[in-house]
Amino acid sequence: ALPDAVVVMGEFGKVEWANKAAQSLLGIHWPQDSHVRVNNLIRDPEFHQLLHSPISKNRVVFVSSPIRSEQQLEVKIVNYMGKGRLLIARDMTQTIKLQEMRRDFVANVSHELRTPLTVLHGYLEMFTTESPVEQWGAALPVMQQQTHRMDAMIKDLLTLSQLELGEKPLEHQSINVVELLHSIAKDAQQLQQYQQHIIELDLESDAFLLANSDELRSAVSNLVFNAVKYTPEGSTVTLRWSVSKNNACIEVKDNGPGIRPEHVNRITERFFRIDKSRSRDTGGSGLGLSIVKHVLHHHNAELAIESKWGKGSEFIIYFEALEKI
């Protein structure tokens, strides 16, 4: 019944017994692999070193599963029944991934805040009460821009934290999606990056959607604003609202540069940026798509991303079946 792989090893590390989890984690089948040496089945050098070292309760090694290389296992060996030994392997893939995400998150927040703070600190060190007005006049807009950038990042972090912890109650309202998309399109036209962009509305339905108004606006706005910010002047951004028997969809499509295939699966990660210099120029916090992902999770909705490098991108939000509308 244990979820961890357990293998009883006899003399010379031969398999004497293994549970079912050993089959899925280590590829050790009982009784087919009876009396086969474990080091013939698990060929990781770290494991071989552990196998031939004196047993220590605190010593563990991390190895890739022989079945799936992306699966990370914590392996240790303990004494069992006199001269026997137990090999215990635990799936640590998710834990290691979370630890890496936590480290990356702290490093990214520190890095993102360091840049505007460095700018502010530099100006403040340079100025004195006797500095000429012209000098202050040139610096103040830059300082204001950097404080706005930090403020936006902190607001996004707080929003993301509330979504992840479920601190904000999810109050559903009947939302007129047609009006919402018209309003978001109008807001997008006020962006600094809006340069002769064309925003098209393809509204196939006048159905209402049962959702949290603020969260839905935040999610769709992030997608539309990104489409404007990261596409060249004169690009076309299409907002589509459609309803079928199985689901309802809000789509945001652009004809910009697109996203490389290796980046598509990572762009909803916190602070992940395809082009770091360009992203900083737009003033983005790098948290927008993470917020979108968590808002949709709140609504039992899904985000699909379709993109061809050089041919544009399409973000599709799939809501649940028609009875939700």
Compile the SSE list and pairings.
Elements: E1 5-9, E2 15-18, H1 20-26, H2 38-41, H3 45-51, E3 61-64, E4 72-80, E5 84-91, H4 93-126, H5 133-165, E6 173-176, H6 177-188, E7 198-203, E8 208-211, H7 213-229, E9 236-243, E10 248-254, H8 261-264, H9 276-282, H10 288-298, E11 302-308, E12 312-319
Parallel strand pairs: 7-9
Antiparallel strand pairs: 1-2, 1-5, 3-4, 4-5, 6-8, 9-10, 10-12, 11-12
Helix pairs in contact: 4-5, 5-10, 6-7, 7-10
List segments where confidence is low: pLDDT < 50 over at least 5 consecutive residues: none
Helix content: 40-55%
The best one-word shape is: extended
Order of helices and strands: EEHHHEEEHHEHEEHEEHHHEE
State Rg.
Answer: 27 Å
Number of separate strands: 12
Summarize the biggest pleated sheet. 5 strands, antiparallel
Distance between the termini: 44 Å
Strand content range: 15-25%
Please state the average pLDDT score.
Answer: 84
Sheet with most strands: strand arrangement: 2-1-5-4-3
Note the total helix count.
10
User: Assembly type of the shown chains?
Assistant: single chain
- Give the class from helix and strand content and strand pairing: alpha+beta
